[in-house]
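Sequence design from tokenized structure. All designs in this work follow the same two-part layout: the structure record, then the generated sequence. An example of the structure record is given first.
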């Protein structure tokens, strides 16, 4: 029987009626950390836990797997006697659980529902249809509402309830002690030390993780001093001026073994949007085209001073004919062009004067 999303089934006076809302259910083969052979059980994803029943009609579950200790989920590519079966490895804080789905499509859909409930976000790395992605979005919204309704008066602790000195380090995470341990163990390559709110809401804490035949967690209390700054509450208290100094002090004290936890949040690689089908009204998730938008045609460059400068390249004009130049100028003595053309240069004028004097002397000598 293929898995399918269903409404909550209520047994008459049974345990099933007391469970959180069921988001997804179907037959799976499960083998826990201490089990030698897998068992085929009817599996229900109710709230943030997997409930296992002997069959789909049972009202009492035989086993529960709380997903709050989730670490990772990956495909198991080992072969099964059933060639169509697809396996999963669900890694939790208390060990690994191996799950076998009927086929690849069922495995992909189970992964989508599990990630949606655990991360409260629709996964973008799975191969799912638009309708299936819409179902996951509805599950995320329902689970968020369910968790808010369970703790209406409980506010998460925040270091901002007290005035802080300086900037908050990038390794700060608004998580609880248990969530900090899960975060550090799930992402060991991103660092092994993070800053988080304390349980009382008026202090901070540093959670660290190291590997010694398994995960070893340590928690250090950080309080704010009345005179300013902070102090790491250990046997020999370590005063620090800012929260950055708190992190730097732990790095220096451990010779660089402890490193701040810096997790890069995933971002979408494509732009998506939801639109309704005009024919049946079904809402579908679309991916926007990735090709660049067409560029507007470029305007021709503006010709500056077109009335002053010629558009064609400059060429040397032929030498004007002196006869045409002189004949085209009117004979008016007041014409400026005539004065420009016929007025002698100073050198020519001096030569004319000298020649005139010599001619006069010659005439005088001949007389």
């Amino acid at each position: 029987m293929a898995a399918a999303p269903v409404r909550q089934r209520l047994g008459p006076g049974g345990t099933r009626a007391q469970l959180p809302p069921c988001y997804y259910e179907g037959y799976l083969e499960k083998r826990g950390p201490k089990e030698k052979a897998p068992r085929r059980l009817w599996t229900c994803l109710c709230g943030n836990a997997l409930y296992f029943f002997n069959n789909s009609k049972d009202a009492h579950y035989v086993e529960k797997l709380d997903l709050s200790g989730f670490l990772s989920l990956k495909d198991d590519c080992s072969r099964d006697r059933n060639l169509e079966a697809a396996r999963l490895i669900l890694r939790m804080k208390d060990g690994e659980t191996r799950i076998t789905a009927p086929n690849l499509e069922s495995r992909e859909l189970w992964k989508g529902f599990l990630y949606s409930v655990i991360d409260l976000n629709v996964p973008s790395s799975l191969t799912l249809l638009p309708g299936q992605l819409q179902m996951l979005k509805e599950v995320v919204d329902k689970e968020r509402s369910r968790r808010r309704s369970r703790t209406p008066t409980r506010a998460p602790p925040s270091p901002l309830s007290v005035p802080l000195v300086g900037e908050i380090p990038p390794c700060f995470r608004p998580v609880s002690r248990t969530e900090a341990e899960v975060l550090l163990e799930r992402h060991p390559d991103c660092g092994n030390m993070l800053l988080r709110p304390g349980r009382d809401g008026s202090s901070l804490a540093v959670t660290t993780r190291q590997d010694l035949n398994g995960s070893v967690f340590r928690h250090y209390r950080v309080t704010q001093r009345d005179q300013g700054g902070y102090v790491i509450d250990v046997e020999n208290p370590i005063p620090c001026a800012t929260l950055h100094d708190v992190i730097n002090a732990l790095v220096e004290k451990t010779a660089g073994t402890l490193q701040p936890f810096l997790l890069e949040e995933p971002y979408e690689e494509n732009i998506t949007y939801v639109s309704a089908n005009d024919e049946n009204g079904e809402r579908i998730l679309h991916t926007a085209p990735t090709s660049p938008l067409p560029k507007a045609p470029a305007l021709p460059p503006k010709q500056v001073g077109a009335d002053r400068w010629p558009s064609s390249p400059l060429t040397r004009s032929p030498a004007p004919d002196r006869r045409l130049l002189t004949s085209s100028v009117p004979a008016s003595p007041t014409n400026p062009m005539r004065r420009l053309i016929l007025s002698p240069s100073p050198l020519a004028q001096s030569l004319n004067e000298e020649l005139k004097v010599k001619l006069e002397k010659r005439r005088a000598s001949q007389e």
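The chain has a mean pLDDT of 79. We note this feature because it recurs in several other targets discussed in the main text.
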